[in-house]
Amino acid sequence: MTMLDDHRALAFHTTRAIALMAALLGVALVVARRTDALPGLLAGTAVGVVDVLLLSRSLTRFSAGTGLNARALGVGVFTRFVSIGILLGLVLCIRGLNPLAALIGFLFMPVAIAVTGIRALRREQRTVATEVRNVGH
User: Which residues are CB-neighbours of 72 under 8 A, at least 6 positions away?
Assistant: First the structure.
């Protein structure tokens, strides 16, 4: 089973990548003396992490489910999008938070998923290449 098939591992590695990117940007904001943006970054990052966890739960449910039809899949995805949309909307409406920092924090999620997926595929390609070389000798 690859990491892309194990949804909990995917969520863990994606969350770790989100936290790393948020920490790096947080340090950059402190160095730039823009600490007023840190709460917005934290709030947006938290929404991104919640989205990853909901995505992981949905993927696990859909991959394990038998007899799921297109309607169930559509309702599940729609519910996740609505939930995250409401959370992000609430975060963007809070007066004390920097909305740009919150949006950037949230957008770490798709970047982290892409990075995690690319790393997993590269790792899998190296494993296959090693196995092919070992069979050839």
Answer: 65
